[in-house]
Amino acid sequence: MEGIAVALGVCLVLALVSRRLSLPPVPFYIIAGLALGKSGLGLVTPSPISDFFVDLGLVFLLFYVGLGLKPDRLLAKRSAFLKVGLIDLNVNLAIGFVAALALGFPLPDAVVVASAFYISSSVLAFASILENKKMVFRESETVVWMMVFEDIVLVLLIVILHSGFTIPVGMIARFAVVAAVLFLACRWGKRAIRRALDRDDELPVLITFTMVVAAAFVARAIDIPDTLTVIALGAALSTTAPAALERQARPFKDVFLVLFFVFFGISVEFSGEVGLVAIAAVSLLAALSKLLSGVLIGRQIHGSTAAGIEIWSNTIARGEFSIILAALYGSAAASSTIAGIVVATSIAGSFAAKYSPILKQHWVRLRSRHRAGSTHPFIH
Fold first, then answer.
1. What tens digit of pLDDT does each residue of 161-199 get?
2. Any idea where the domains of the chain sit in the sequence?
3. Given a cut of 70, is residue 257 above it in pLDDT?
4. Phi/psi zone of residue 42: left (φ > 0), alpha (ψ -120 to 50 degrees), beta?
5. Which residues have C-beta within 8 Å of that of residue 314, sequence separation ≥ 6?
6. What spatial distance separates the first Cα and last Cα of the chain, rounded to whole Å?
7. Rounded mean pLDDT of the chain?
8. N or C: which end of the chain has fewer CB within 10 A?
């Protein structure tokens, strides 16, 4: 408990500082963990109690992901949704995979690093859109579709990594049965669920917490990933009263997720396998990779490179899902690399999102000068 108290106290201060500086708190939490843990002062070590709270942070975050997966909305705009998602996936996953192999990672770690390289932080993306008052921008909807597509790919990546690159027929069959039961139960019990969540006593909070924890327990009991099961639970419940469920689950997610980030940092131990220079280089490549995919999406969907710069500025940051993959499936070397990528891109992303209008203006000026120069004949 002492370690949890120290971690929460430090994170409370850092949350206040990050808000004061208008920066995302996630990299500060990871840096705090690095300073307190194996890579730093060694003041805090993981314990069974901290592991329990970290698990809760993970499952509540993924429950939130499930609540955002609304099948009817995806089908309504499936063409643009697929186009945006596939560009983002193909560019970033491929570049991340090649970079990981170049650093000498074995295949399993290369997939983990590439996956973390690809998946942006939806929390930071949505926060940057709201904080910088960009909801009216046409590119904001494109960013939302990118994040939803990445959430769906995250589910597939968890299946692949959990199964060790084999085809887990039995696990898939068991998960399909559980998911079907959840969707049918939510469909038949929609009215009862809504009535229960409309109450003004402690019952809605208790119901929400119990459902998430019970889903994780059942998943582990029948040997399917609890991460997938809580996503399926959230997706099933998104057809009932998603706003009420988000409201009840958010306090648990916010507090436990802070512990998830800080204890990830505590567990990271930088080794000689990947040096700091290499981590800095791959972090820069991660930023440029999202720039390339953002520009391609901007041209394809909005017919504008400037739109692509706007998309990039809100999706450059990696965060919670990169850390999840590293914590669940990455080696020590992969985890330290991903920690560096998350810290660097989160900080860079906060500035890019804030100053994206200036970046777009510079691009327009450069393009105008280039066009003006190209109209004059070259004189030898």
1. 877 766 667 878 888 898 899 889 888 888 888 888 888
2. 2-44+51-316+337-374
3. yes
4. left
5. 125, 128, 129, 134, 139, 140, 143, 349, 353, 356
6. 77
7. 81
8. C
Q: In angstroms, what CA-CA distances link 171 with 19, 158, 214, 216, 273?
A: 43, 12, 19, 15, 34
How high is the pLDDT of residue 63? 84
DSSP string, 142-156: HHHHHHHHHHHHHHH
Residue with tokens 């009840």: 248
Sign of CA dihedral 151, 153, 155, 157: negative
**Full-model pTM:** 0.73
pLDDT tens for each residue of 114-136: 988 898 887 777 777 766 677 77
User: What does the DSSP 8-state code read for residue 5?
Assistant: H
> Which tokens hold the place of 170?
């039995």
Joined together, the tokens standing for residue 362 give: 């510079």
Report which residue type is found at 192.
A
The DSSP secondary structure of 250-285, one letter per residue, reads HHHHHHHHHHHHHHHHHH----TTS-HHHHHHHHHH
Whole-angstrom distance, CA of residue 315 vs CA of residue 291? 9
Dihedral sign computed on CA atoms, order 57, 60, 64, 69: positive
Token look-up 């119990």 returns 210
Cα separation, 125 vs 143, in Å, equals 8
Class of domain 2-44+51-316+337-374: mainly alpha
Beta-carbon contacts of 229 under 8 Å, excluding residues fewer than 6 positions away, are: 175, 178, 179, 215, 216, 218, 219
DSSP 115-170: HHHH---HHHHHHHHHHTT-TTSHHHHHHHHHHHHHHHHHHHHHHHHHTTSS--HH
For residue 92, the model assigns a pLDDT of 93
